[in-house]
Design brief:
It is a single chain. This protein has 385 residues and is an alpha/beta fold. The chain folds into two domains: 143 residues, Aspartate Aminotransferase, domain 1, CATH 3.90.1150.10; 236 residues, Type I PLP-dependent aspartate aminotransferase-like (Major domain) (Aspartate Aminotransferase, domain 2, 3-Layer(aba) Sandwich), CATH 3.40.640.10. The protein contains 13 helices and 17 strands. The longest helix has 19 residues. The protein starts with a helix and ends with a helix.
Length: 385
Amino acid sequence: MFITLEQQHSSGTYIKRDLQIVRGEGARLFDAEGNSYIDCVSGQGSSNLGHAHPAIVSAIQQQASELIACTEIFHNPVRASYQAALCAAARMPRVFLCNSGAEAIEGALKFARLGTGRTGIVSTMRGFHGRTMGALSTTWEKKYREPFHPLIPDVIHVPYNNIERLEQVMDNTIGAVIVEVVQGEGGVHPAEAGYLRAVQELCHAHGALLILDEVQTGFGRTGYLFAHEYDGIQPDLMCLAKSIAGGLPMGAVLIGERVGEIPPASHGSTFGGNPLACAAALAALEVYQNTDLIQRARERGAAVMTYFRENLPENIIREVRGRGFMVGIELRGKVAPVLSALQAQGVLALPAGATVLRLLPPLVISDDDLWQMVDTVREVLHHAV
């Protein structure tokens, strides 16, 4: 009944699976019939701490009973505490709080123009940064962009992991380079060793700002609190969202010293920095920082990818890529039937393009569920050929 009701009134912008999810617990989701699924969708990366995490639930319940909404024209102690904690964790002095990843990208693009006085933006092929107009302009996939032309001008796309091509387009019109540390929607492609450092050096040499899109890779997903820690660099602007608040809608733009001053009223958000989201985010950050979940994701993720490389034959897969609990398996065929077969066997997963299987298990997944998922993926792929 509710599936039909939702289909009648939904916008039509989503291709929905024939599955009604009604409850979540840890790394498991449950449908209306009571069936249990190992969740490797993780809310498209927004559930790094799984579902109904006790620390998040407690923080939300307590804050909801005190104050939910408080615009940033007023000071608020929960917001202040979270801003200080997040800035310390990111080693960046300032932060703008918003409500989503696309909003974070929009804010970073505006701050880059303000900070440099330049309009040129360099993005990367296969990059995905969101669907609002500015974020969409920096996204590569033509099927997302072309129906909405004209988009914002002066955006150049260059190949990912190709520093020579980036160097060719850098000049005094470029205000920022925006890049993912691991391309998610674009096929789970990690930055090669030295690439991000070279991008940073080019930005500094040409007076441009480095924007890192860590919307999907942030908060432990790749085995580090922020994925760029792997490369030992420091962005000028860093976009965060998804798992920032344990599943509540929230986003953030971390702002470095090279950005300069941001004038009052140059940007804003009605719900940005609301106490409810800040309380949840503060609780989430404490979990990330005070447990072994991130290290565990780094170690278990490496073991899972090694297993797949050694146990999936070449007539099934082309490559296994990723970092931590962000795993991509590039297939020699289409991924859609594999996703359906996995769902029938109790595992929910994502595509990353037409031929890449993307697995985003929550950091809280048990070893039993993790290896059950791995075995299920192996069995389904063996039967797919």
